[in-house]
Design brief:
The strands form six sheets. The protein has a nine-stranded antiparallel β-sheet with strand order 19-18-17-16-24-23-22-21-20, with no helix packed on it. It has a six-stranded antiparallel β-sheet with strand order 2-1-15-14-13-12, with helices on both faces. The chain folds into two domains: about 290 residues, Beta-lactamase; about 80 residues, Lipocalin (Beta Barrel). It is α+β, with helices and mostly antiparallel strands and about 500 residues long.
């Protein structure tokens, strides 16, 4: 099918909230229905014995799985677990509370923000458009987002899907800006910030570096190709056909979501609400779903009623670097092995939510873990569940090897010892501005130490690590000089590298 690139649709903020009426009406009906029946349902659930549900997972294995979550107190936030086998929920249970204010327990129908587990939905949307010929995953991204700078080498949609684009991570850019998370931030703000970046972390296709920007751009491409928001497209083409009635994208910060769990993180006094209400967009995250709906999503990977086998083939195609090396990341999914078994998986973390979805296709077994507490390692918890459920199929030797390897890892390294001279620090004090971030930072001297001040952050000491190189917390700072005079510095921050700050007046 010939693609009609001329059908590119200019996005506007006004169409951000389209095609929601039917699902919103359904949510309203469910909510009001729940107001009447929820108290009675909770009483009935409390009265039922724990084993009233006939799960297909053996009781002995259920006990092992439950023991993994023994750390969750009854009055604390926790997790919803689903062990999926042969397309059915073989064992599902909630541990802890979905809402501490009301003492509402977590169930398999509780809705959680699943963070970056959302990326596979975005990838599926783009892959479906590729299957249908509306775009090609090998298109130059600027075909659809022409306001992006023209870099030395084109970035393709495939690069975005594989995290090999080199595009700087917008969340890290926001941290460097000093963004106030009480402010509303949407898809259009993200695209604007990404488009300001005149440089990349690396040449497209040369490396793998996880970047949320790629998936935010993919959501925007879906909008420009179809005229629909990612949310509307996914609801029409995936969620509704698959029966995922309680799955959506959080793109309106005043919306009511039935059975939604609140996110929490530990505080000095116990627990505090940690829920990024004002991030209202899709792409790299923001999918809200339940274990029950994840069962329906998982079934598509065996019977792809949307997109067919062509869609699955695209989603599982691992990325290739320019040098020919294959990476573990495919399209919104990691494709690797766990203790000798082929595995497809992805984790997510956002505010007070943690999530993990893993699938062992050869054994028709998956585990979905959705949590509303920011202090858990869902990858580790899921691995323990898998160890219990697939004990007879796992490689025992690989378990010992992984344990040994983990035990031998270094927990930290001393920074290189370097003491700059007074002359080397001369002229470092001043104001520095980055046009790419539209922000200014300050460096000043205090009690013989050089201090970095940036908006929204506490002052941080600039610690020398090598000549003209410093660290400030997790940031790396490299000075720029002209004839010995400091003219600026470049910042390196994990998923963002080489951001230039120029000294005012130079």
């Amino acid at each position: 099918m010939e693609r009609a690139v001329t059908n590119w649709i200019e996005p506007t903020r006004e169409n951000l909230q389209n095609t929601r009426g039917a699902r919103r009406l359904g949510a309203w009906c469910v909510l009001n229905f729940a107001r009447v029946l929820l108290p009675a349902a909770l009483i009935a659930a409390t009265a039922l014995p724990a084993q009233a549900q006939r799960w297909t997972l053996p009781i002995s294995v259920q006990s092992k799985v439950d023991s993994v979550f023994a750390f969750v107190d009854r009055d604390a936030p926790g997790c919803a677990l689903g062990v999926i086998q042969d397309g059915m929920l073989a064992y599902g249970r909630g541990y802890g509370l979905a809402n501490l204010d009301w003492g509402i327990p977590i169930t398999t129908s509780s809705a959680f923000d699943i963070g970056s587990v959302s990326k596979q939905f975005t990838a599926a949307a783009v892959a479906l458009l590729d299957v249908e010929g509306a775009l090609s995953i090998d298109d130059d991204v600027r075909t659809w987002v022409p306001e992006l700078p023209e870099y030395n080498r084109p970035i393709t949609i495939r690069h975005l899907l594989n995290h090999t684009s080199g595009v700087r991570d917008y969340l890290t850019l926001m941290l460097l800006q000093g963004f106030e998370y009480d402010n509303v931030f949407d898809e259009f703000d993200g695209v604007e910030l990404i488009a300001r970046q005149q440089g990349l972390n690396f040449e497209p296709g040369s490396e793998f570096l996880y970047s949320n920007s790629g998936y935010l751009l993919l959501a925007n491409i879906v909008r420009r190709v179809t005229g629909q928001s990612l949310r509307a497209f996914l609801e029409e083409r995936f969620f509704d056909p698959l029966g995922m009635a309680h799955t959506s994208i959080w793109d309106e910060n005043t919306e009511i979501v039935t059975e939604r769990a609140t996110g929490y993180s530990p505080t000095a006094g116990g627990w505090g609400i940690d829920h990024a209400w004002n991030f209202q967009m899709g792409g790299d995250g923001q999918v809200i779903t339940s274990v029950d709906d994840m069962v329906r999503w998982d079934a598509m990977f065996y019977d792809p009623i949307v997109g067919g086998q062509d869609l699955l083939a695209r989603l599982h195609t691992q990325g290739l670097l320019n040098n020919g090396d294959t990476i573990d990341y495919a399209m919104g999914l990691f494709v690797d092995e766990y203790r000798g078994l082929p595995r497809v998986q992805h984790g997510g973390a956002w505010a007070g939510f943690r999530a993990y979805l893993v699938r062992f296709v050869d054994h028709h077994t998956s585990v979905a873990l959705l949590c509303n507490r920011g202090d858990v390692n869902t990858s580790s918890l899921t691995a323990q569940v898998v160890d219990a459920v697939l004990a007879d199929q796992l490689d025992a030797e690989s378990e010992a090897a992984e344990t040994t390897e983990a035990a031998g890892e270094e927990t930290g390294r001393d920074e290189p010892a370097f003491t700059p001279t007074t002359a080397q620090l001369t002229g470092l004090v001043g104001e520095y501005r980055s046009d790419e971030l539209d922000v200014s930072w300050q460096i000043f001297s205090e009690d013989g130490e050089m201090i970095l001040m940036r908006p929204g952050n506490e002052p941080a000491e600039l610690r020398p690590s090598a000549q003209d190189e410093f660290t400030a917390g997790r940031l790396g700072v490299t000075l720029e000089r002209d004839g010995g005079r400091v003219t600026g510095f470049r910042v390196f921050a994990g998923r963002v590298t080489d951001i230039l700050f120029e000294k005012a007046g130079e």
